[in-house]
Amino acid sequence: MTLTGTDFVSTSVARFNGVSRTTTYVSSTQLTATIPSSDLTTAGNFPITVFTPSPGGGESGSKTFTVTPAPTAPTVPLPPVGEAVRPTTIIFSGKAFPGGKMFMVDKDIRYEKTVSQDTITNDDGTFYTSFIGILQGPHSFSLIIKDKEGRGSQTKFFNINTLVQDFVVKDLIIAPTVALVAYSVTRGTATVVKGYTTPQSGVVAEIDGIIKKEAQAGQDGAYKLTIDTGPLEFGSHQMRLKQTLVGGKGESDYSPLKNFIVSRVLLPKADFNDDGAVDIRDWSIFLFHWGSKDMEKRMKIDLNNDGKIDISDFSIFVRNIRKK
């Protein structure tokens, strides 16, 4: 789970329904939290908060996270003893993007394994995949589709009881894959979004739940959106995309949220943690790499691209931190 806000620190902890969960500090405006599957077994509305220890800390206001019941196939009784049971067949079909890789993952509390892997070969992005011989009982399947550049779409989840003879899900419309060319831009500089979706379909980008921007995918399913950041406020923004099929024949779910920052000044390299500012956090990162014996890490602070780390890079960093 990705949480966005302000004034996060490295010791900030996300809480799900009042219980602290494993949290990774990304930046002062973003955290990621690991929510175990056990938190999602009961449907309902649950508060999400962020707790920051003293001094100056406390618990944030809450946001509501809704867990909805997953659709399940009807349960049928076991066949009488001695009666043959034919293997269960699982089938998925729908529209995605040419060249995509499909992964079917079977997961329960004991294991997680990929049971099928296929490539979408149809030029129109349609797919049909099936597998047979799943063990009898309840299963949780996820359908993961990655584009030809390895970017994943929104994962689809299905709870299935394979005591039913077959399980078929058809006419799925897969959300576009999404990549931001830059995660931090100066206001007035366009931010570019690209990815893959069903060929010739429409792509709709939603920014902060309000602003809409549209484009059309090409014959290969690739799309590109250029978004003017002039009307946007300084700070962090959220974007998600969906596809709409030609002729109004349906639309996908939204993609996972992507975060980007509109900053006051261009900080292409000295902003090491990509939070839209050069500050004490970046200074700590700079010093860490400066003292490292790992040349690959040291080269991350080669701010003038001259192939060496010296006082020139230090001077460039100091000039940038003074721009705040």
TrEMBL record:
Asked if Transmembrane helix is a keyword of the record, the answer is: no
Biased composition regions of type Pro residues, renumbered to the chain: 71-80
One GO biological process term is: polysaccharide catabolic process
UniProt keyword annotations, A-Z: Receptor
- Pfam families of this UniProt entry? Dockerin_1 (PF00404), TIG (PF01833)
Entry's Gene Ontology molecular function annotations: calcium ion binding; hydrolase activity, hydrolyzing O-glycosyl compounds
List each copy of the EF-hand domain by range: 300-324
Q: What is the lineage of its organism?
A: Bacteria, Candidatus Azamiibacteriota
Is Cell membrane there in the keyword field?
A: no
What is the name of the protein in this document?
Cell surface receptor IPT/TIG domain protein
Residue span of region Disordered:
54-80
Could you tell me which species this protein originates from?
Candidatus Azambacteria bacterium GW2011_GWD2_46_48
Q: Which SUPFAM superfamilies match?
A: E set domains (SSF81296), Type I dockerin domain (SSF63446)
Give the range the annotation lists for the signal sequence: none
